[in-house]
Design goal:
CATH topology: Rubrerythrin, domain 2
Order of helices and strands: EEEEE
Strand order of the largest sheet: 2-1-5
Strand content: 25-35%
CATH class: Mainly Beta
Radius of gyration: 9 Å
Distance between the termini: 13 Å
Number of strands: 5
Structural class: mainly beta
C-alpha cells in the first residue's frame, strides 16, 4: 500500500514494528521482507 499522507500508521505483521509517517516520499513501507499493513490514518 502506497503512503499517501502524514499521520498514517503502519505495522509489520511479522515482528510488530510500528511507524508513523512524518514526511510523504512515495512508495511503500517494507519490514521483514513484507509490505507493512496500514492501521490508522
Amino acid at each position: 500500500m502506497a503512503v499517501k499522507k502524514t499521520g498514517e500508521k503502519y505495522r509489520c505483521s511479522v515482528c510488530g514494528n510500528e511507524v508513523e509517517v512524518t514526511k510523504v516520499g512515495g512508495g511503500t513501507l517494507v519490514c521483514c521482507g513484507k509490505e507493512m499493513i496500514k492501521t490508522e490514518g
